[in-house]
Design brief:
By secondary structure, this protein is an all-alpha fold. It has one domain. It is built from ten helices and no strands. It is globular and about 60 Å long.
Length: 203
Amino acid sequence: MSLTFLITTLIVVATPGTGVVYTLAAGLSRGRRSSVVAALGCTLGIVPHVLATVTGLAAVLHASAVAFQVVKFLGVAYLIYLAWTTLRDRSTLSLDGAAAPGSAVRVITRAILINILNPKLTMFFLAFLPQFVDPAAAGAVPRMLLLSGVFMLVTFVVFAGYGIFAAAVRHRVVGRPRVLRWMRGSFAVTFLALGARLALTNR
């Protein structure tokens, strides 16, 4: 495993995107536990893209404009839904660490969907992995899976770090309705902006 791969992976993962935004939101709204759960969900959402790349499904998605557009706009619709639910949320925050029943399941499900419904992630792996593995070489699949596993581990660690930091400063938000409204509005606008960017991207 090369140092170049690790550095490239760290840069890609640390660059803010939908997963980072969602993990930050989870940390600010529900605390450290939910931020780690969100990071885990975003990481698990990478698995289908890895499998698609390894099995060659990514090539099909890349070749089919219709398939790419369908997945892309499902992702756009989901980001719009997240923005809407963020704005509709009128619950207050607390520091007692108690979460509503089923909240962990809801957090991890949303996090998984965020990455599953992002066709650009499959395109990334299709372009990224061959730079470090020759697909025609012997043992290429195990090596691709190994590198993908490292990518996922880095994703979890970095995302969890973002979320834990957000959870550490959430006490500055609790009890301040104006700050809370600003925070929710900012996340909603960010989700909409990310959705718009995804809608305008091409293969």
